[in-house]
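Worked Example 4.2. Read the sequence first, then its structure tokens.
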Amino acid sequence: MLNNLFSVKLAKLGLLFLVSFTLSSLILIISIFRIAEIKYVFSQSPNPTPVSKDNISINYSLPEGGKIEPDNLLWPLKALRDKILLVVTINPAKKADLYLMMSDKRLVYAKSLLERRKPDLAVSVLTKGEKYLELAHAEERIARQKGMNTNSYLNRFAIAALKHREVIDDLISIAPEDAKPIMVKSQDYSKNLYNEARNNLLEAGLIAPQNPFDSL
């Protein structure tokens, strides 16, 4: 009887320890992610500027961002899940797809955050997302070097890069004045990566998506 009571108490203590350890680990992970984020501080008042590219609309569908956005307390766990997916994905072509999807989603999040008057976080998310765009192209390059046919992906990537440029133009037009220089700089990723993807397609004897911004 005493042995059974002792076993039950021991089991309860073990469960309590496990729950406490799990909660502590989650709190630590969240804290690490929040510390690691790039912090910006901008004025909260948007300064609209005239947009001369209203007639440009790139035919590329951005994904739904989901309910958990970067200002949500659960965001670090979502970001951790993304990192785990990238680590376990060995195929460079599939990893390129993952990076592109994550980049697209962060563009969507940045737009949502800016519209909700959170420019500091919006710019941080946008910057990280455009770096993911660069990593997507790097993984495609690895896949191509390994003999994989990435022509279809390259075409889609080139269109995605143009879409990023279009959306960032829109975001710059409604961003606070002091946030605009960083956003303009982040746009260099989509501009340069489109050119690289276009050149890769032309070298393969394929037709590249036209860049409508060249005529402006």
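Now turn to a second chain, presented in exactly the same format:
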Amino acid sequence: MVRSRMAYFLLLALLAAGRSSAEDVRATARVDSARMVIGDWLTVYLQVEHRADAKVTWPVFRDSLDGFEVVRHTDPVMKTENDNVLESATLVLTAFDAGEYVLGPIPFQYTTKGDTTKSFARTSPIGITVRGVAVDTTKEIRDIKPPVSLPISFAELLPWIIALAASAGAIWLFLYIRRKRRAGESIFPEEPLRPAHEIALEALAALEAERLWQRGKVKEYHSEITDIVRRYIERRFQMLAMESTTDEILSAGAIKALPPETSGTLSTVLVRADLVKFAKFQLRPGENEASIPLAVSFVRSTVVAEAAAKESERREEVAVS
């Protein structure tokens, strides 16, 4: 029966080849081997040669073909040389039943330019033998081996490690924000405040570089000096110096506790500025020039006094302990 089918398909192939030759369209199919084992893959190489004025339609390969199962197929690749065209593609098949199979003929529909008649070019049939796996029946049947356990690699653990670290970070951030809010603190750490004396000395140096009184702006010059000094007193002694009069500042307990030389320097700076601002007093050039050094001296003397007081407190604590 198989020989009869083979002879029948060979006859069809001869007729198809004759017609294809007449139309200058030739379809061919070849395989690496006509014998295969159940489950193996069989690669079929398909080619169609035709003139440039012919249009070929490839067949649609679905799940099965002539008793074989289609594993995959590639799209046709076209190469043109002069007036000839070569289209090629591959078809991968497999079979799960032993036996004799005949692959093909595979039809390719085509039309030529100026002719709407649909013609076919077919590949020659190919006989394929599918062999089963030899089983030695003299040996006892054994159970299937269990799956082999492979060690877990670091690459497999890495995504889990990253996810765990991210989860831990999110939990810590949530607890940190909740604790800060309950304590009424800022979520982000604030920058430490600069010492009051550094800010004041920096502002006095910048004011001196402006040379205001030398340019006739004497009132503005002394106003800036007193503002810098008052802001320093607010930060250094925690008192509302910007809203207080000169007498109120000088009579404050923190100022009275300073050495007489220091409080006297402050009094000179503030009173001199009041005379210029409110009494329109005309100071001598040397007095204008000396105002900033006096303000600098006051700031530095209070820093020295503060350091001495802290050192005295430290010595007392050491003596008591």
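Notes for the reader: The chain has two domains: 2-131, 196-307. The chain has eight helices and twelve strands.
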